[in-house]
Amino acid sequence: MSSLAMPQEKKREYARKATQKRVGSTSRKPPPVEEHLDQFEVKKEIEKDTRVFLKNAMKQDRLCATLDDAEIESILNTVKFYKFDKGTPIIQEGRLGTTFFVTQTGSMEVSVKGITCNTIGAGCAFGGLALLYNCPRTATVKATANSEVWGASGVAFKQSLQQNATKHQAETLKFLDAMSIFEGLTKKQKNCVAEATFSEVFEDKARVVTAGDMQTAIYFVKKGELAVYSGGHVKSTGEFVDGSEIGRLGQNDCFGESQVVSKEPFNITILSSGRSELLCVSVAELKVILGDDLGAVLERNAISQGLKKCPVISQFTASQRSELMKWVVVKDYAASAEADAGARIIIVLEGSVSGLEKEKEVKLQRGDWIEDEALLNSSSAASSIKNMKAGSGGARVAMLTRDGMASALKALGVSIANSAEDASDFTRKMVLAKKVHIFRHLSEEQTKKVVESFVTMKFAQGETVIEQGTPGTSFFVIANGELEVFINDKSVRRMTRNSYIGERALLFHEPRTATVKVVSDNAELWAIEKATFEKIIAGNMQQQLMNRIRLQDTNFGLKDLIQVKVIGAGAAGVVRLVEHKSTGMRYALKRVKKVDGEVPEEVQRECSLLKDIDHPFIMTQVNTFETKKSVYILTELITGGELHGAIREIPTVLSRAQAQFYTGSLVIVLEELSERNILYRDLKPENVMLDAQGYLKLIDFGIAKKLPEGESKTFTMIGTPHYMAPEVMRGHGYGTEVDLWSMGVMLYEFVCGYLPFADDLDDPTEVCTAVLKDPLQFASSYKDAHGKTLMKGLLTRQPRIWATDSYYEYCVSQQEYSNTGKC
């Protein structure tokens, strides 16, 4: 078939099969800066009229549109005045952007690779995108007439955008925290709702809501005061008259939340008393983010948060708690009505409940919970919760009965134990055992044997768990705490909860190869004796474990490796296949040259992150070596090639099963990174390798970032535009959820054969515009309804699916993976 005869979609599909790779803004060598501007600077004070002119121009720029006057002023305080003669370049394609410009007089043309593509006149702002993106200029701007231009500091420009976003987020979270309706939302969910809020200003006597109106938004008073009226009516002129004032709402007050749940219209009218500013979140936006039945969703979140607080239930993963939720019963009780006697967990959703716990009186208010000490007890012992009754105003409670708990545990593959204490301990160990990667091949019975063999050991800070050179008799799983591993007194890694140590001596009958000490205040470890361990370890698990152990052997240097051949080369460095002289173990060795005697920042960042990650779907970093001129990174050898190449070897688009397999694997990886608060930021087929069995291995953490404790956002615009989420481009801050957008782009590429946005574009500015504005459309040949639903959720520009606790849970809820399981 000739290309002229192909329909457009088929052309795109064949184009996908080409070898073109999308490249992000990760250049190691900084491009030239805009030092040429100094020669065009003219000393000039900014006058009042000019300042107003520049403000108006900046507010027309999409990057500055959300800035308030104070933030714009902070940018204007850094401006310099420039004069350019006709024909003079103002910015040059390929140079690093350091200045944000506003034209006062004159005209300019914009060209890309020598081809004119736009013009700029007086009152236009330009140059901001490259600053935000931290990338070279993507176009040349040249004066076509004598022109006067103001240029502001790029640092001040980016700081103002970030400060604006941070301030808005803080104000909005304060608004959400003040509303009881949002009590059940997680921090991540609140951040998503915060993204959907907006400010609205009302002048004196303006109506905010009118009696009889249906609910359209929830409001929070940011500034000013509101008057609340009963009765009255609205004249044909729009004036409200004859109402009786019954109250006032001031700063930090909120209203409208009760109507969201009740779905009843307002029975009051609220007017602005003087000028007021309100923060609002529309009901329509909330439905997009949380679902159509807001009352049910918010109630479900309240139950979920209550379960997280229960000591036993808190040990379960998000997906396991989701299974428990299916067995929770919600009931309404009239005043003084007695609650069901079989309840083992009670969470108060509305009203109050009182009764006895361990024969002591307790009273529970909204949001409180109580857990029976015999929650998991297999005996018929009476509950420690007795005589629970609703308060004078009645109560709405969520309950989990003993039978419900038993059914949930059975569905999860967790058995009930013989005593409350044993049950709690057993449940925690089963949950944790299932998280340890080396146990993933075990059957349910084998996992139980592991758990039954665990012996709890507690250590204080500074204590030695195992010592290098001593015989090994036990294998340890870290239940709580942080440990540091030393080889020959040199720290090589830190290990946290769910990691394991001591396996080498058990399998290979060798002395301990490292010393492990407790660095946290204390640590709790679970130990399995050698004899039991050897009985359990077999088959796939033994093979995988032995391979992981060999990768952890770092007690050798470059001189112990033989170079076999070059297996890759690029701008970042050369990758060679190497072999250990003694063991025959093969690795990949990447050499990166130092810049001015220093290891490049992105290489330092990648090594730092990979050092502490141990996951079967993430490339294992074995060791790093430094010489005077280079740094060498030794990793596991991945022999299956790039996913980018693999999907292009398939003559058509990927089948449903293939797309499910690859996307499901990515979900597992991203959930792991999210739990560690790590943003990958450059997810694309080129950065995914395949191992010998065809499983995914995520590589290249050069622009990944671990968010500091307590932070949920970063602002740097970085990555590959075709796979980049809109939040990254807007400059208002983003979190780990942006990697799910990239996964959505990859899924679309898998099943449609081309990219969803800007498939035929390469200019970063044009690509960003397409990602921000173009509609999501599917190939006419793609008919999978569940797949479309999932991709619409992943590729929405609204913060919808990011509100879920579990990435995998969301994907399963869309039924895209329902017939194949988790992986």
UniProtKB/TrEMBL annotation:
It comes from Symbiodinium pilosum (Dinoflagellate). Residues 1-35 are annotated as: Disordered. GO terms for cellular component: cAMP-dependent protein kinase complex. This is cGMP-dependent protein kinase. Keywords: ATP-binding, cGMP, cGMP-binding, Cytoplasm, Kinase, Magnesium, Metal-binding, Nucleotide-binding, Serine/threonine-protein kinase, Transferase. Its cofactor is Mg(2+). Residues 561-823 form the Protein kinase domain. Residues 63-178, 181-291, 438-537 form the Cyclic nucleotide-binding domain. It holds the Pfam family Pkinase. The keyword Nucleotide-binding applies. GO terms for molecular function: ATP binding; cAMP-dependent protein kinase activity; cGMP binding; metal ion binding.
